[in-house]
Amino acid sequence: PLLLLWFDGEEIKTDETIRTLAQKWQPSRRPRSEERNTKAVDTDMIVISCMSKPSHCEKATEEINVVAQKLITNSESDLQLSYAKQRRSKSSALLHKELDVRSNRAVRQYLVKVNQAIATLYARHVLALLLADWPVEAQLSEEALELNGASHMAYILDMLMQLEERLLWEKILQRVLKGCSQSMLSSLSLTACQFMEEPGMAVQVRESKHPYDNNANFEDKVHIPGAIYLSVKFDSRCYTEEGCDELIMSSSSDFLQDVHSFSGSPQKWSDFEIPGDTLYYRFMSDMSNTEWGYKFTVTGGHRGRFEILKQMLADVRVLSHLPVADIWEWQVGVACRQTGSQRLKAIHLLLRLLQCQCET
């Protein structure tokens, strides 16, 4: 801060008022909270060891969730921009967190972390463009891309799938599949099979009193870690006084992004999907007339890991180089062990494998 001084002969003095103001300008020493001390971690890509074969399953897991699952969402194109927005927000939060943690240290120390974060983001998009423009006749190799193993390519594709627009990612995948050797394709497909073994997302249910109270003003959120989007399904009995008692939902705590509002008879409550891993909701009622209320189920969804294997099975040239018997064994195991949308996706791939056999 600029400190104003005045002179009295040869002695330099500081006005007491200016000195008091200067104290206010000094940066306050904030307490070292747990959140600020937590190391910022980028969780976009976590590589786990690849299993050669699935574990044996004697009996299929029983379905406990009665909510109908959507195998292929109809609104994916509408959610595309929101996916990108969610990713940018998380990257921004990661960078802000790192800066905040190191704000009380020397500038040179945390600028190194800033440069690393920016370099990582830049490198990802360069990699996406590199793979998209890779010459069709060129062979991709583990050495050229400095991979830890052939299966590592599946994790790179999975990461890029969540960062890039769908059309660009599909172009990347097509180029990668054309450039992969037979052994690399085999490893890529089996790693994609292993992706299907992910634990199912938790399902959460929220509901009001039945009937709800007058003068209600309730606000809460549903958070499912790891979800790329959330599917919301309403109970068929949902009913509130139309125009007076309203349930508002959003992907942001300020209720400004991806807003959905519901009020009135059961016909007015339509299922929907919202990007991100957190759903914020608020319910308000007036001083008179109440109805049954609301009840909804929230299911977390993945985007992409199912798509890698789906795209591979759709490419006739690639299909001839895949270990179909091993993929079949994997998907039968996944269909038995998983429930809900993961089970449906595995069954979808099994049907595709049968169709491929009929075509060949």
TrEMBL record:
PANTHER family: NOVEL ZZ TYPE ZINC FINGER DOMAIN CONTAINING PROTEIN, ZINC FINGER ZZ-TYPE AND EF-HAND DOMAIN-CONTAINING PROTEIN 1. This is Zinc finger ZZ-type and EF-hand domain-containing protein 1.
